Prior knowledge:
Layout: E1 2-10, E2 13-21, E3 26-31, H1 44-54, E4 59-62, H2 81-94, E5 100-106, H3 108-115, E6 123-127, H4 141-152, H5 155-162, H6 168-178, H7 187-197, E7 203-208, H8 212-221, E8 227-230, H9 240-255
Parallel strand pairs: 3-4, 3-5, 5-6, 6-7, 7-8
Antiparallel strand pairs: 1-2, 2-4
Helix pairs in contact: 3-7, 4-6
Amino acid sequence: MTRRHFTFACEGDTLAATLDDAPGSAGLLLVSGGNEIRVGAFAGQAALAARIAAAGFPVFRYDRRGIGDSSGENRGFEDSSPDIASALAAFREERPGLTRVVGFGNCDAASALMLNAGSGCEALVLANPWTIEQDDGALPPDAIRARYAEKLKNPKELVRLATGKVSLKKLAGGLKRAVAPAPPPTSLAQEMKAGLAHFAGPVSLLVAERDRTGQAFVAAWGEDERIVRCPGASHAFVEPGARDWLFAQLRASLVSG
């Protein structure tokens, strides 16, 4: 595996990219979420790219416009279609032997790929897609119910309740939200569904079970046989078991074409 840094053009701006090269004909296009640079939080995406490349699959990462080492204006994930398309074109130019590209995004990077019907990739792995339009910090009702169910299984939590160490005001507020009906799908979620409906390739929807963004996605999206949950995982799959799980999901998508 070799790692190369270079730049490519996108609508008059210059974007920075990193290619973790490998001989495979299937490659991974890693789209960053939020305002995160391509190396990822605590170099998590760089480490993931190195691991995927060591397994034989090239990985392309980049900073979208206005982020990290790239020039231009940061227009957010909803207007990042040209950035993704230019990155995919640059990936194919750098690796002309590619026959299949898997697009991977976490959080609003997953949403961007969905809104743009896969952006030209042959397969998609979408983790904890962002569907929240007005973020009040609250969990959806089904996630609250699941949390209370777990607490009721824990003897220590029952002792805390019996000894008055639980705020009854907070408990009442939580129970009120738990029995509330599920919120209607956001317009963002509906747009994401419409975009993904135009994608013909295989799709994996990954959800970290301890992540509020993932929980909100499931509540807004509804039942979908493509959803796969990672028990005990947080948003960025930083736990050792979660890292291995994410790697296995990506590798399976890369080899299945």
